[in-house]
Amino acid sequence: MILCLSLFAMGCNDWLDVQPKSQVKEEDLFSSESGFRDALTGIYALMGRVETYGGNSTMGFMDMLAQTYSKVRYNYEDALKYNYKEDHVKGIVDTMWSTHYNAIANCNYLLQNIVKKGSVMSERVRNVVEGEALALRAFLHFDLLRGYAPSYKMGKDEPAIPYVREVTNSPVAQSTVAEILEYIITDLKAAQALLKPVDPIGPSFAEYNDKLNYDMDEYITDEGFWLYRKSRLNYYGVTALMARVYLWQENMTAALACAKEVIGSKRFEFMNDSINKVSAYRDLSYIEKMARHEYISSLYVYDLKEGRSDMFFKDAATYECVIDKRKTLIYSGMGLDLDVRSKNWFEKPAGSSTEYVNKYMRGTQIPLLKLSEMYLIAAEASGDIRYLETLRANRGYATDPLPVGANLQEEITKEYQKEFIAEGQLFYYYKRRNMTTLPITSTSMNRATYVLPVPDNELEFGNFKQN
Fold it and tell me: SS3 string of 330-357?
């Protein structure tokens, strides 16, 4: 199924002309409700690959650009220098572009077939499949915008990226940064409307857990489709993404409203000692417990440790990412001893003298949107330091509040550095703020370092220009 979906972007004719054993024809795939469910699951699987959110867009390349690591393997040193023309780095940047648009093509193909053949689904399943496909299309375009275009602060009226909303092999014209953001918000509002009445984790249901709102017959017939909503772009994941998008758009009022809706839903809670001591969680790592309670939306990757963490974080790894010197600076002073992140997100492997991130050494989830980000967005959008203090208290600083008169934005920056290690968000935070010098490393930044170059073939054949 995944192989089949990955061919959508090559064009419908190419896809329909072949049918190896690992693929199915269009009329077979979308002839049943299960086919639509499988197609949606396949898009998440594409996003979990190392080329995108299973590596480059989270724990790997994007965090190298954010100067998270004090040392990387020699063939990644050009990433730390923002040398985007070097062959190895250029290959990563080009691949991130193509894989994102490949996943977008799959979203569009799924949406097209919902219009044509969606009647084979129940109304409830159709709402979820269509809502998540729209949300995924918006999510993928937003990260392309954040990477390959100027920030809203840099140039909201400048050409950005194409927003692709249909299955096509023809070039799609660029839109401006401001226009792309409106397209994203339109898709997210439509996704919200579809998901709100049917999503088990959403506001139409009194309570939620992974085994609520369905019976055994439903589980057997739908193969667990309604389970584990926190591993998908659920209703609150869409709302959290809207908060992130509105903040990029500098619409503080809307960003605050969305963040407060997620916080107020009570569907998510910070890790605490009582959760940590639950006997049923005895065999879970700290990060696994955190994922169950704090992740709003995440990607499930069944081979996360073997397929990703060994690659990025072990001594003999192909991509060696060392954190120890940076960690000391990020969690400076009392933070090294007080901060639960400092105490639980890092380790020195046996026989190693260096420290690595261990977020992905156990478990199967890569975070896309988290409760902590909603508190940071609420603090920045409202100017209310109490949101920040709530986050800090739940990270170990309950007895060490911020001093009177602390600079809110500076303290928010420090929390982004502590909170989003190996998640790919920190570079985008720096870019959104248009910071000319990165904290911790004093790295100088400008438009050339913040805006990733689009692939050469887009410039040559894609009716595309990049300033």
Answer: HCCCCHHHHCHHHHHCEECCCCCCCCEE
128 lies in some domain: yes
Size of the chain in residues = 467
What is the per-residue pLDDT across 244-253, written as a single tens digit (0 to 9) for each? 999 999 999 9
Q: What is the pTM of this model?
A: 0.92
Domain membership of residue 405 as a residue range = 2-461
Residue 11 confidence (pLDDT) above 50: no
Per-residue pLDDT at 192: 98
Q: Which of 128, 361, 109 is nearest to 225 (CA)?
A: 128
Asked whether residue 466 is assigned to any structural domain, the reply reads: no
Establish how many alpha carbons lie within 13 A of residue 43's alpha carbon, considering only the half-sphere containing its beta carbon: 31
How far, in Å, CA of 232 to CA of 132, rounded? 8
Give the residue among 211, 229, 201 at the shortest CA–CA distance from 280.
211
SS3 content of the chain, % helix, strand, coil (to 5): 55, 5, 40
CATH number for 17: 1.25.40.390
Tokens of 377: 């967005």
* Cβ-contact 61, 53 below 8 angstroms: no
Number of separate domains in the chain: 1
Q: What is the DSSP string of 267-319?
A: S-----HHHHT-GGGTTS-HHHHHHHHHEEEEEE-TTHIIIIIHHHHSTT-SS
**347 near 358, Cβ under 8 Å?**
yes
**Residue at 467 is within a domain:** no
Tens digit of pLDDT for each residue in 250-301? 999 999 999 999 999 999 999 988 888 887 778 888 999 999 999 999 999 9
Q: Is residue 382 part of a domain?
A: yes
The pLDDT, as a whole number, for residue 324 is 80
* Cα 61 to Cα 70: distance, rounded to the nearest angstrom: 14
d(CA 91, CA 71): 21
